[in-house]
Amino acid sequence: MTLVAIPGPNHLYITTRSVAEGRRAGIASALGVETGTLVHVATASAGLSAVVAASATAFGILRYAGAAYLVYLAYRTLRARGGDEEETRLRPQPLHRVYLDGVLVNVLNPKVVLFFLAFLPQFVDQAAGAVPLQIAVMGLVLTLIGVVCDMVYALAAGSIGAWLRARPVFQRRQRYATGIIYLGLGAAAVFAGPSARRT
User: Residue 143: in which H helix or E strand, if any?
Assistant: First the structure.
């Protein structure tokens, strides 16, 4: 529970989205992120996560793809405009796009791959057999806990964001602040390594 609740890049992404675009965007981001977690659960259960982590080429592709997508989000955010009279204000994205962004941000996060490889096997009972099923069940439990934690971040950040968005100074700066955070997350993704925990 503690590992899932500790703030990490995914939580920062959800918080940023919720502050910038409201609670609904934060919730959509959280659901997208945890849908991405389900993808990781499936790949870990099938043994594909181990293959990716063992291959420097595959892991590098995943890492740079994740970084590139975050840079793309930064670019899209920085160039988005709400209108001629509000050109510095961030234009909210459709919820289906927000959800898909969350899915891709997590699926392309190499730290999650490493987390499932380093953490879940510690609790597998080889004598009980059905190792893939055990990993899948534990992954589903972690995903459910993650949904709860992510929703807390989304709702709390959404409340703070509503207050901030009512301030003219924040309105003028939010697009740039959000874009810079995405750029920072992209840079951090490049340096993802074996010491990573779930984020």
Answer: helix 131-165
